[in-house]
Design a protein that fits this description.
20 helices, elongated, seven-stranded parallel sheet, single chain, about 500 residues
Length: about 500
């Protein structure tokens, strides 16, 4: 599912009109009809409902006027409120206004003097349709627009936004000043990045994407997508003749005295996602904490029995590499100069698929070592930082990462030559010029250890021979879907802990 910036959407819209000669009025008609269909799906029979449609002077307002006409035809008590004078309307918007007026539709102009009356009217409606601003909007709302936004947001009437909530930046998802908060957003043609990035996502309510007749071939140059259920079709098959060696022997180098649980969560997630064998290498002094289970525990010597890997651990760890199909490095390692040497030694001596997470990334303080590793090897790697870890890796700040998630994930993946999973809301998966924005997950994942589970899920898919980038995309989707499944079962998101995800994986994996 393509995801476009505001500028990309405008360019594709123009190409459909100018090069393919699809009349803009046809696209507008298609958009209006699609919105009405979504209204009926969401709210049922609209006959005799009281609906206000708030329209601007651009083509988003024209879409709203098409909606108004079709609602009028369905015997809806519809009123149109226009922000702007008739002479300011775009040609298509004006043409649809004229049609609506010929049908004796009710139209009002929004002015400063009419705001008090509008406030009362909004609260008496069954539905408000927001078609004030579209993808061309940026900056702060001008004139009385901010006051209108506040009136809409402070009434109890459900709100449906056409294409995107007015006041929202279609590309960044940023809101300067104020924006309308919708209960339902009907996205036209393609999803926009601003609908999926926070804070914009919070303003959209439920998002429904509708086809308005723009050929998808016009977006084929876009390498930005949203995950869908179809990613599960990418999972490797499990042949009837398979055995534990068929599905990957995964080596996990993780854990320390303070974070022994991280290693356990990763190892169990590997098994729950189909890994054939899992060897967990942990510092010798904490190995006794792990109860007998399906995990193969391999104690690794330390110099001082501190509960952390150190330089004495390097050779024993390197001796474990032969015969393994994937290396998962980092969950719960801790941080120290000696651990930096451990991480660097393992990276320099491993040529297979690698998942580097958490303290594996934090201990990669010398990025120059990556320059000597062939690109063909690094393309098999997946890095899974959260914003703080990525900020340390590229010498930035977490706030700066979150304000520019898509671009920074893409740039870092390209600069390092790896596949990168930037965890967060939404999680961004970047690699080889492609970007996926994940569609699953919720705030229940905001608890310790869920990232360790994600490492195990992706690691298991790598171990089963899946393409590293697609393993990252599918793993992130599965991880989020597990959290969604937990909430669907009625469990409070406040009460979810990381190990709960392990119990749900068998229910959602095909």
């Amino acid at each position: 599912m393509f995801v476009l910036t505001g500028a990309e959407m405008q360019a594709i819209d123009a190409k459909a009109i100018e090069e393919l000669k699809i009349p803009s009025l046809v696209l507008m008609e298609n958009a209006g009809v699609a919105v009405v269909n979504q209204l009926e799906q969401e709210y049922g029979d609209l006959t005799d409902k009281r609906i206000i449609i708030m329209v601007g002077k651009g083509n988003n307002g024209g879409d709203g006027l098409v909606v108004a006409r079709h609602l009028l035809n369905r015997k809806v008590k519809v009123k149109v409120y226009i922000l702007g004078e008739e002479k300011e309307l775009s040609p298509e918007c004006r043409q649809n206004l004229e049609i609506f007026l010929r049908l004796q539709g009710e139209v009002h102009q929004i002015t400063q003097r009419s705001l008090a009356k509008l406030k009362v009217t909004l609260n008496l409606q069954d539905l408000i349709i927001d078609a004030l601003y579209g993808t061309g909007f940026s900056g702060q709302p001008k004139g009385i627009a901010a006051e209108i936004f506040n009136l809409v947001n402070n009434c109890r009437t459900p709100v449906v936004s056409v294409d995107l909530p007015s006041g929202l930046n279609a590309t960044t998802g940023m809101v300067e000043g104020s924006a309308i908060r919708a209960d339902l957003t009907v996205a036209l043609g393609f999803l926009k990045t601003g609908l999926l990035l926070y804070p914009g996502r919070e303003y959209c309510g439920k998002i429904k994407l509708v086809d308005i007749g723009i050929p998808h071939s016009l977006a084929r140059h876009i390498k930005r997508y949203q995950t869908t259920e179809r990613v599960l079709d990418l999972l490797p098959s499990r042949p009837a003749w398979g055995h534990k060696g068929t599905f990957g022997h995964c080596l996990v180098v993780a854990g320390c005295a303070a974070y022994a649980g991280a290693a356990y969560l990763t190892a169990m997630a590997l098994l729950r996602t189909g890994a054939g064998l899992v060897t967990l290498a942990v510092p010798q002094s904490i190995a006794s904490r792990y109860t007998p289970s399906e995990i193969i525990i391999h104690p690794i010597p330390e110099l001082s029995s501190s509960g952390y890997f150190d330089t004495a651990s390097i050779e024993p760890l390197l001796n474990l590499l032969p015969g393994k199909d994937v290396l998962i490095l980092g969950p719960g390692l801790g941080r120290s100069p000696q651990l930096e040497q451990v991480v660097q030694s393992l990276i320099n001596n491993w040529q297979g698929p690698l998942l580097l997470d958490a303290d594996g990334i934090n201990n990669l303080t010398d990025r120059t070592c990556l320059a000597n590793i062939p690109v063909s090897i690094k393309r098999r790697w997946v890095f899974t930082p959260h914003p703080g870890e990525l900020a340390r890796l590229i010498d930035s700040e977490p706030a700066a990462i979150n304000q520019n998630r898509i671009e920074l994930a893409s740039e870092t993946a390209q600069q390092l030559g790896v596949n990168l999973v930037l965890k967060g809301a939404p999680t961004v998966i970047a690699g080889n010029g492609r970007v996926y924005l994940n569609s699953t997950g919720n705030a229940a994942l905001a608890t310790a250890g869920t990232g360790d589970v994600l490492s195990g899920i992706i690691g298991a898919l790598l171990g089963q021979g899946m393409d590293p980038y697609l393993a990252a995309v599918a793993g992130v989707y599965i991880h989020g879907k597990a959290a969604d499944q937990i909430l669907k079962s009625g469990v409070s998101g406040r009460s979810v802990i990381a190990s709960d995800l392990l119990q749900v994986l068998p229910q959602i994996l095909p």
